[in-house]
Design goal:
Length: about 80
């Protein structure tokens, strides 16, 4: 896919700004502006999903922590009973 190095038109700039802000697309903008808006919106959505996947712990991690905590608790209970 060839890359064209040219300045954005006025409506392409407006579409890019709207995409970054999460604002709706204006149907008065050109097809080129629509492509800019959709491309940036899609890329930003993918980045947000990647960021959430990095931040949210996996089920395996949560289960492992729970098992360690339960094991420590059982050990404490046993030591207080003896």
């Amino acid at each position: 896919m060839p890359q064209h190095n040219r300045p954005l038109t006025h409506d392409e700039r407006k579409a890019a700004e709207a995409a970054f802000k999460g604002a709706p697309f204006d149907p008065k903008w050109s097809d080129a502006a629509r492509k800019v808006y959709l491309g940036l919106s899609s890329a930003m959505a993918n980045k947000r999903n990647e960021a959430f996947q990095e931040v949210l712990p996996s089920k395996t991690t949560i289960d492992a922590k729970r098992n360690v905590t339960e094991s420590k608790l059982r050990s404490r209970i046993k030591s207080t009973l003896w």
